[in-house]
Amino acid sequence: AEAWKVLAAGGRALDAVEKGVQVPEGDPLETSVGYGGLPDRDGRVTLDSCIMDEAANCGAVACLEHIMHPISVARRVMEKTPHVLLVGDGALQFALAQGFKKENLLTAASEKAWREWLKKAEYKPIANIENHDTIGMVALDQQQNMSGACTTSGMAYKIHGRVGDSPIIGAGLFVDNEIGAATSTGVGEEVIRICGSHLVVELMRQGNSPQEACELAVKRIVKNQPKKSREMQIGFLALSKNGAVGAYALQKGFTYALQTPEIKNQLFEAKSYYA
Ligand code: GLY
After folding, report:
1. Ligand 1: residues whose CB is within 6 Å?
2. Please, which pLDDT band fits residue 126 given cuts at 50, 70 and 90?
């Protein structure tokens, strides 16, 4: 809804996706993104985000702590530095120099869940099979320009320093203004292994619809990990330059929101490989 306000007013897709993903980043009840995100096994909330525009400009931060809106830091990396990706302390130092406020992102509820987890401290890297663990957003504006954003607190109770697919351009997000845009959610390691979002866009370039491209990418993960793929969730979303939409996941229950001039911010359930 926040992204649509920008698009409906004739604004840039880049501004729309930044505004859109800031909502779950700032929501303390959303435990897989930004403020309130579940911490790593050391109790630290570490955030991964990236953003990409219509001219292949991109910026990203990984393992960033204490900043409410990592997507906006990623945008500053894109706009104010010659680099694409800043990580850890360097990303925090940059954010503070840019005027972002240092905050505690670990809510009482997330701390309680982490302390409960510590009792057994069993690490099962199974991303939320019921739904997903990241927000990825892609948009096409009235000037026919595309942009995308992807942001997450990553897998709960990960090893400190672990980075998933979400801040990796080509893995968690990819935009090619001539072809389309794609983003992913789920077990980041498997998405990185296939350069997932880049793969989806390249499959569209070869003539596949966004739906076919998402399905082919998920099938490649199944081919790589026939056994493990039954126990984890991965989903792709894609939008083509002509406004066609695709969505596909490994498991049932992957929902996504779509808004167009005809469809008012509606939730849809993606088709899945496993029933
Ligand atoms: N897809 C989010 C992550 O693996 O961290």
Report:
1. 133-134, 152, 154-155, 164-166, 185-188
2. low
Beta bridge partners, 50, equal: 60, 150
* Dist CA 108 CA 133 (whole Å): 20
Sheet holding 271-272, edge to edge: 173-176, 180-186, 234-240, 245-249, 271-272
pLDDT of residue 130: 46
Q: What is the pLDDT of residues 19-62, one digit of tens each?
A: 999 999 999 999 999 999 999 999 999 999 999 999 999 999 99
Q: Tokens for 201, please give them.
A: 């866009």
Token reading at 191: 């998405």
For residue 17, which of 92, 100, 96, 75 has the smallest C-alpha distance? 75
The model's pTM: 0.96
Catalytic site includes residue 31: no
For a mutational test of ligand 1's pocket, the pick from 47, 152, 160, i.e. the residue with the most ligand atoms closer than 8 A to its C-beta, is: 152
Return the H-helix or E-strand segment holding 137: strand 135-140
Please, are residues 76 and 67 in contact by the beta-carbon 8 Å criterion? no
**Which phi and psi angles does 21 have, rounded to 5°?**
-80, -15
Tokens of 172: 């968690």
Alpha-carbon 197 to chain mean position: 10
